[in-house]
Every structure is written in C-alpha cells, then in structure tokens.
C-alpha cells in the first residue's frame, strides 16, 4: 500500500450558492445567480438554489457528517451578498456574519481546518448592474469585501482562496453567456473578465499581505481548474495546439499572478487575430507595467481543481469572420472513446492526467504548495456509487505518485463534493456528493453513500491499496 503524508489534509468541498439556500433569508441580498436562476429556461428543469441543501439552517449536520467521515478539512465559500447585501460596505448583514462565525466555530470544535473561498460565483446583483466582472472598479469592491472577511473571520482561517475558477466565470458568463450575467460577448468578454478578476485577486492578496498576514499568519491563493490536455496526434501542429490549449484554459488566469502577465502565446494570438479583423489594438487588455508589478507573485499556494482530460487537435487557419476566444485559440476539443465517461458528458475518468497536470503546474509556476481543491465524479445520485469510488481511487493514486515519486508538495485534497448540490446550469440533474441529499424532502435528508465510507477508510489509514 502507498501512504499519504501524516499531515495530509483530506477533506471535502462545497460552495455557498450550491448548498446554502436561504437565498433571501435574514436580509441577504440577491446575487446574479439568484436573479439568473429565476429566469425561465436558463437552468435544467428551472431548478434554483433557493433552498438547495438548506445548509444555511443545517450547517451543524454538515459538520457532524465531516466529523463522522474523519475529514480534516472543509472547503466552503462565503456568499458575498449574505455579508454585504448589495456588495458594498455600506451595510454589513449581522445575520450573515453570525452564520459564518457559527460554522467556523463548529468546524473548530470538530478539529476541521476551514479552506475558505471568498468568491465562488455569487456576485451581488448590484455589482453586476454596475458592469460586473467587466468593470475594473469591481476589483476595489472585492478588496473591501475581502478586508471585511479577513477582519471578521481571519482568526479562524489559515487558507483563503480568492476566486473559484476565473475560467468558468469568464468563459461561461462573459464569452458564452450561459452563466450570469447571460450576455455573450465573444472574443472580448472573457478577456476583460480575466483582467478584472486577476486585478481583484491581487487586490485581495495585497490587503491580506499588508494588513492581516502578520497577525493572522494565513495564506491566500488563487484557484483555477486546470485539466491535462493530450494532443490528438504527435504532429507538430497538434503539439503546438496542446500547448496553446493549456494556456487558454489554465495559463490565461493563473500565469498573471504567478509570472506577471498573460501567457505569451495568448498575447501573440489575440494580437494577430485582432489585427486580421481590422482592430487597431488587441482585444486582450494589456497589463500596464504598474499592474504587472502589482499582480506578480500574489499567490501563496496553488489551489488546483482537476476533473478530467481532453484531446486537442489543431484547427487549420482560415478566415476570421467574427471575434471569439475559440477562434483565437484555434483548436478542437474532444474526448477519447476509450475513456470511462460519467453521467455528465464533459467528465471522463483519465487519472494519468492528474499526475501530468500537477507536474505541469509545478514546473511552470513553481508554487511552494499545491492543494487539490476540487476533484469529483458525476452520477445520478445512487447510494451504491461504485463509479465514484473507482474514480477517486485512481485520481488519488496519481496524486500520491506526484507526491511520493515526483516529490511535489501537494498538501491537501478536498473532493467535490461533500453533499449532492445545485450544479449550476445542470440544476439537480447530476450529483457529485459523498452524501446524498433528498431534494424532495423539506428536511433535505442527508444519507451517507458507499463512496463516503470508502473515503473514510482512506482518510483514517492514509493508505491506498492497488
Ligand atoms: C460527448 C461529448 C464530449 C464532449 C467533450 C468535449 C468537452 C468540452 C469541454 C467543455 C467543458 C465544459 C464543462 C466543464 C466544466 C467544469 O470544468 C466545471 N464545471 C468545473 O467547475 C466546478 O465544477 C463542479 C462540478 O460541476 C462544481 O460545480 C464547482 O462549483 C465548480 O467549481
């Protein structure tokens, strides 16, 4: 058997909008997800996060489950409009503050380390009306929110994650418009959003560094989903496309904070396609020298989400009829028929990819510490979830090889997710939980699945058997 290091932080994850419910309880303001899910036909089955797992009222049960499963960490997010109803510091909602303080105290009493995400996609609607992640001033609002959270909760928190998956927010929300605010802006929206999110992240990191680090002694990191992408063939074109694809999906969002700027290949590509389209400037916003200095080196650890892998094939250059990120990126993405597919079409089990992407991130960005902040399997919610057990076992085995054989400092793993929950545009169709939630019962009854018992055995022995 292979053994995880003694202090390895095994845990599980969740996010405010996906589990809390209480969407307008106790003076909480509306986020743009609250508004978006209330528009008919945006979400599978018109599902909403209005009640979700009702963790706003049942957080003690959640912590008891974590404890029963022997988990040592819990990644959760703070709902910005639950603390600041319109997103601004003009009003702090004491009921929201109490909720997170109570949760943190409950975790502390159970000996569970919180890993706290400041922003997991629930932007206050008022700030969305102000332009959302296209408006650079949102970075200032985010800085104020971060400062308030550090002040209120920082005594309990050693790991802060500023943003969850800028790639998802920016591509789904502002390039394609399938997430809120729901207006597609191809070829411009995702880049502008990435620019603002990077600045917002850096602001939150500097505020911690300047005002809180000395007393609170925690770490602040950026999260992104970086999946390993395989070339479809060994042709020079496909290998170059593979490299480009890693940058367009991962590097675009993380390279600025680790290396001070956009990946060079993206700067070159967007400049080139913009010129071809008659622009006198690149559609990719340029960081000024002052901004580069400000954003560079602003992550204390790498918070890495890994789900799957894809095949990448070069797209031969044609005309450039309309701007789009896909056209700038110039590759096709697909799955390999030999890979096991989950119930969600986008998610295959390709465990080798986990070790490869951990090595890629480690070599490229040289973080002193990596935490795998999401990794999980989609099914339809059955208690006998052998597919999830196989997936977790194979991914954990590769993560352990990265630690033991490649010598990489991966210090924790929070599987997605503790509870079945609201899966964004998929509503409650797919389930990722170790614990089943009965969304048809008013009580949102929780039932432990087979995968949770299997995971409990791994976390208590720290051993993984072949
Ligand atoms: C037969 C079809 C084959 C298709 C192959 C091509 C696939 C194209 C790639 C597109 C991928 C789109 C969906 C990707 C989603 C994830 O990266 C994203 N959902 C990860 O975000 C986290 O997801 C969790 C589980 O869904 C959870 O919701 C969490 O909040 C997110 O951070």
UniProtKB/TrEMBL annotation:
**Which of the seven top EC classes does this enzyme belong to?**
hydrolase
User: Which species does this protein come from?
Assistant: Sitophilus oryzae
Kindly list the GO molecular function terms attached to this UniProt entry: beta-glucosidase activity; galactosylceramidase activity
Keywords associated with the record: Glycosidase, Hydrolase, Signal
Name the record gives this protein:
Cytosolic beta-glucosidase
| Family designation | Belongs to the glycosyl hydrolase 1 family. Klotho subfamily.
Q: Which domain of life is it from?
A: Eukaryota
Record-linked InterPro entries: GH (IPR017853), GH_1_N_CS (IPR033132), Glyco_hydro_1 (IPR001360)
The catalysed reaction is: beta-D-glucosyl-(1<->1)-N-octadecanoylsphing-4-enine + H2O = N-octadecanoylsphing-4-enine + D-glucose; beta-D-galactosyl-(1<->1')-N-octadecanoylsphing-4-enine + H2O = N-octadecanoylsphing-4-enine + D-galactose; a beta-D-xylosyl-(1<->1')-N-acylsphing-4-enine + cholesterol = cholesteryl 3-beta-D-xyloside + an N-acylsphing-4-enine; a beta-D-galactosyl-(1<->1')-N-acylsphing-4-enine + H2O = an N-acylsphing-4-enine + D-galactose
The enzyme's E.C. designation: 3.2.1.21, 3.2.1.46
Output the GO biological process annotations, alphabetical, semicolon-separated.
Answer: carbohydrate catabolic process
């Amino acid at each position: 058997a292979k053994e995880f290091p003694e202090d390895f932080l095994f845990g599980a994850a969740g996010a405010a909008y996906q589990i809390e419910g209480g969407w307008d309880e106790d003076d909480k303001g509306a986020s743009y997800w609250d508004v978006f899910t209330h528009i008919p036909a945006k979400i599978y089955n018109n599902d909403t996060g209005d009640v979700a797992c009702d963790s706003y009222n049942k957080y003690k049960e959640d912590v008891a489950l974590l404890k029963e499963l022997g988990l040592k960490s819990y990644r959760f997010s703070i709902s910005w409009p639950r603390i600041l109803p319109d997103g601004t510091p003009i009003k702090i909602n004491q009921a929201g503050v109490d909720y997170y303080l109570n949760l943190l105290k409950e975790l502390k009493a159970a000996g569970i380390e919180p890993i706290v995400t400041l922003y997991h996609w629930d932007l206050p609607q008022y700030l969305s009306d102000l332009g959302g992640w296209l408006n650079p001033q949102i970075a200032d609002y985010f800085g104020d929110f971060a400062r308030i959270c550090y002040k209120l909760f920082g005594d309990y928190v050693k790991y802060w994650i500023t943003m969850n998956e800028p790639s998802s927010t920016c591509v789904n929300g502002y390039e394609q418009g399938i997430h809120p605010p729901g207006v597609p802006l191809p070829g411009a929206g995702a880049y502008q959003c990435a620019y603002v999110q990077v600045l917002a992240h850096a602001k939150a990191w500097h505020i911690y560094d300047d005002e809180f680090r000395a007393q609170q002694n925690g770490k602040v990191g950026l999260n992104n989903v970086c999946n390993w992408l395989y070339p479809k063939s060994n042709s020079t074109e496909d290998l170059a496309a593979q490299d480009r694809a890693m940058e367009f999906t991962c590097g675009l969002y993380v390279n600025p904070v680790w290396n001070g700027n956009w990946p060079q290949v993206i700067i070159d590509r967007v400049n080139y396609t913009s010129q071809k389209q008659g622009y006198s400037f690149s559609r990719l916003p340029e960081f000024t020298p002052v901004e580069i200095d400000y954003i560079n080196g602003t992550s204390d650890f790498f918070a890495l989400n890994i789900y799957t892998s894809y095949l990448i094939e070069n797209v031969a250059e044609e005309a450039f009829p309309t701007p789009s990120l896909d056209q700038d990126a110039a590759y096709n993405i697909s799955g390999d028929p030999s890979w096991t597919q989950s119930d969600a079409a986008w998610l295959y089990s390709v465990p080798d990819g986990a070790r490869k992407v951990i090595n890629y991130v480690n070599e490229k960005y040289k973080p002193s510490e990596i935490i795998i902040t999401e990794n999980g399997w989609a099914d339809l919610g059955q208690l006998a979830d052998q597919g999830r057990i196989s997936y977790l076992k194979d991914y954990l085995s590769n993560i352990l090889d990265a630690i033991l054989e490649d010598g990489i400092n991966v210090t924790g793993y929070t599987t997605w997710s503790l509870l079945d929950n609201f899966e964004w545009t998929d509503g409650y169709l797919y389930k990722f939980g170790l614990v089943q939630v009965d969304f048809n019962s008013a009580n949102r009854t929780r039932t432990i699945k087979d995968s949770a018992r299997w995971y409990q055995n791994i976390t208590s022995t720290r051993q993984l058997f072949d």
